[in-house]
Amino acid sequence: MTPRPRPRGRLVRSYVVTEGRAHPTRNTLDLVTLLIAAEDMPLAGLSPEKRRVMELCRPGSLSLAEVAGHLQLPVSVTKVLVADLMDSGHIVTRAPIPAARPSDAGILQEVLDGLRARL
Prior knowledge:
By secondary structure, this protein is mostly helical.
């Protein structure tokens, strides 16, 4: 009988990564919230996961979903880590660009009619 291969996964449980917390200190984070690392903040004293978030975001900005994917952590755990980094000033966030409002069909029809009249 061949031994079953061990599943590859994290050795550290999520509740250890978040220090036992299940909810972030802020409820403003969305999957598409952009995370920008502060350049002048020291990384000393940060947990390995928080340090990795900073390393990922230093070259530019990443969305919360992208960071969670790179860390291979659930989004809920990543939100707790990012909220902690926001509280300490290590991470600044930017809301995603709001979706465009639908245009008025009447205005679009007038533009189309005007273009047709000129051609």
